[in-house]
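Encode chain A's predicted structure.
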Amino acid sequence: MKILLVDDEQEFTGALAERLELRGHAVQTVDNGEDGLQAVDNDPPQVVVLDLKMPGLSGIEVLKRIKNQYPHIPILLLTGYGSTEEGIKGMQLGAYDYMLKPLSIDELITKLQKAVGENA
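Encoded structure for chain A:
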C-alpha cells in the first residue's frame, strides 16, 4: 500500500512509518495539513492517515479539501484526545473511518487494507 501520514507529532509518525515500512508498505510522512494537501496533489496515495488536531489547517479542513478533489482516496482519521465526536463528524464528511491514539498497528493495517480494497 502507498500510505500518506499527516500528523504534527513527528515522533509518532516516524515510528508509525517505520512499522508500516517493515510490513512492506510505502509511506510518506508530512507534519501539517498544507504539506499533506501538496503531497496528495504531487503523488496521490492509495490511502491517507490524517490527524484531526494539528496547528494551522485542521484535519477536518484537510479532509474536506482532499475529498473535494480526490473523492476516491480513503481517509482514516486519528484523534489523540479521546474525542469520538470529531471522528464521527469526519466520517459524515467522507472519512472512511477513525481511530483513537494510541493505536494498534495490526488494527490500523487491517482498516487500511479494507479501505484500499473497497476503493480499488
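Residues 2-118 form a domain with the Rossmann fold fold (CATH 3.40.50.2300).
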